[in-house]
Amino acid sequence: MRKYLDTEDVAECRSMIEDNINMVSDVAAHEVTTHRFFVIFQYEPHMKARGNTVKAIAERLNEEAETARRYLDLCGLEVLEPEYSDNSVLELLYETINKNTARRVKLPDGVFDMLTPVHGIYGG
Prior knowledge:
With 124 residues, the protein is mainly α. It has helices at 2-7, 11-31, 54-74, 85-97, 99-104, 110-118. The longest helix has 21 residues, at 11-31.
């Protein structure tokens, strides 16, 4: 838009282009941070994993996620990654299923500790 602004001769058109530049800047500064977007990857038959195991498929999906992060970064978009993804998935599921309750009642901290024995991961 700035290139068009520099080459535009008509004052009214220059004013409209400046308005568009200001609007895009304002939306980028204020509106974008209020929206969350989720990208979901599904393992497809054409994807080549190093084996037919859950671990190999998870590694292949993580490669896809890393590729998506790189492309989004090239577009200037920030990808937020939680420190503990299992906790974030549990919170998201809770908030999705219990939309009204989740606004008032947060998950208790102890619920995250219960994930460890369920998934077979024990502290050492």
